[in-house]
Each structure stands twice: as structure tokens, then as C-alpha cells.
Amino acid sequence: MALLNFRKREEAPKGANGQLEAFLKDYSIEVMPRTAEKVEDFRSLLPEGTRVYIAHIEGTPIEDMVATAARLSKDGYKVMPHFPARIIRDEATLADWIARYQGEAGVDQALLLAGGVAKPHGDFDSSMQLLETGLFGKAGFKRLHVAGHPEGNRDIDPDGSMKNVEEALQWKQKFSESSDAEMALATQFAFDAGPIIQWCDDLRAAGITLPVHIGIAGPAKLQTLIKFAIACGVGPSLKVLQKRAMDVSKLLLPYEPTDVLTQLAAHKAANPDFNIEQVHFFPLGGIKTNAKWAIENGGASTVPADASP
User: Which UniProt keywords are listed (predicted)?
Assistant: First the structure.
């Protein structure tokens, strides 16, 4: 497929407003090796320079992860692979992964997280332990993201509180103050703007100044989103989906993140110091579907050169 150049829109894109367009600027998106294989040419979907996270699911060979990273890097994207602590056997394995990503794909940024595995495969249990090795600093990584949980995480706090999550955030905040790398919180997805805004305000009140890259589920079938939301432990905002499911007129319509993002964008416009810095998409309904929605709503103010205005 021929390379599709991206150009600026001369008018506001359909379905978007200026606030939403500004809020979507420099959004990021997540892929997995097996989903990336289905995309013939990312350059027809995502503007050059987009940050693309590569999710490392248990059982995915590191060779597949590195190959995906190399492909995306070659196409001009900022590649941010996941480093899930609980599937990394030991410090030697971590050092090997870092060396492979750097040597074969030129990677200099990473998302560090515990990972969705109940029992660690080896020495590491948390992203904090990965940071404590000092290997990312020695390798010269320029950007390190860590996980944020606007609605808590039952794996971390089984009692439903936010105690352990909040303590971990304080640790990560202190680490960021001594690190040369730029750091940010990449969050789990949520569907309700109210709890997201409250969580962000609570972070600031607690002295957490790490910028937030807010996780948002991309367009998808309602049943798909409910399944992922339950599996990922999404809490209060799950009610937004459940309420929608009870509306017969909306039950068969695909969910789109327009409402939650429009509300967050308006809050950001009214409060410029609001600590959400960027939007991060989980393309649960497919990469192409998510990319098309972002284009139509002003993401990066770009559209493919051969697309209709």
C-alpha cells in the first residue's frame, strides 16, 4: 500500500469542536503483535510521530514484541513497549529485553507495570522493583510511564480501598523527582468523566504532579466493552455502560467515547492546569475503527490526504 500523507484540515472536522480537537492532540494508542499483524500499513491510519504502546500479554514471545516495535519505529512512530514485571524472570532477562528493544528498534521509552498475572514468574512483582534496578536509566531511556488507576485496582487493593495504589503513586512521584527520564501516569480506561476529574484533582491535592495520560476505550460494541470492563476491574464508571445497555434504542449501537472526551475537554479548557496531558486509546473495537474515529474528531488535526473532506 502506498504511503498516505497526512495534511491539516482547513475546517473543523465533522463531529468535533475546538476543545475536543485540542484535547486529542498527540493522542497515543495501544496495539498487540497479533493485532498489529492485521494492519497492512499503519501510516494510512495514524499520523507520523504518534506514540504507540505495545502490550505484552503473557505468552507473547519477546521476539514478536521486538519485531512489532521495529516495524512501528521504521514507520516513524514513537514506540513504547510494556514491561510487565510479573512475567520478567530476573534482572538478566530485563537487561536482555532492554538491549533487544534498543538494538533492533531504537526504543528509548517504556511503560512499566505489574502486569495482569496473579503469580510472578520470577523476581519481580511490581513496576517499582523494575525501576529500582536502575537499568532503564543506564540504558538512557528518555521517557518512562507507570500505571494509574482512576477507579482503584482490586488486584492491588483487594478491600476496594485506594491505600496501596496511593502509596505506590507517592513512591513513583519521588522516583520521578530523581530520574532524568520524563515520567507520566498511563491509566486504565474509564467511561465517566466525573470520577476521572475527581481522581485527577485528588492526585494534585496529594502532591502527585506526574502528568496523566488518560486511558479511554475506543469505539466498540457495547457487549465487548462490558466484557473488558469487568475483566479489567473498571469500577464506578461501569454503570455508564450498564445504563446504556438498558436503553433498547442504544443497545445495538456501537459505543463511542465522544461524551466522556467532550466533557474532559471542556474541563481542560476551563482549567488549563488540569493534569491530564494526553489521551491514550485502548482500541477494543479494532485499531482501524479507533483511528477512523480519532481522525473524524480532530485527533492531531489530520486526515489522510486521499480522504474526503
Answer: Oxidoreductase
Instruction: Report yes or no: 285 and 221 within 8 Å, Cβ to Cβ.
Output: yes
44: helix, strand or coil? helix
What is the extent of the structural domain holding 86?
A: 17-301
CATH number at residue 75: 3.20.20.220
- The conformation of residue 220, written as its DSSP 8-state character, comes to B
**Position 35 in a domain:** yes
The dihedral of CA 95, 100, 103, 105: what is its sign? negative
Predicted confidence (pLDDT) per residue in 21-65, tens digit: 999 999 999 999 999 999 999 999 999 999 999 999 999 999 999
Contact of 129 with 85, CB cutoff 8 Å: yes
Beta bridge mates, 113: 84
CB atoms near residue 41 (< 10 Å)? 12
Is residue 306 one of the residues assigned to a domain?
no
In a domain, 77, yes or no: yes
User: CB-hemisphere CA count at 13 Å for 39?
Assistant: 23
* DSSP secondary structure of 168-182: HHHHHHHHHHH-SSE
Q: Would the pTM count as exceeding 0.90?
A: no
Cα 289 to Cα 170: distance, rounded to the nearest angstrom: 37
Number of domains into which the chain is organized = 1
C-alpha cell at 173: 512521584
Structural domain includes residue 5? no
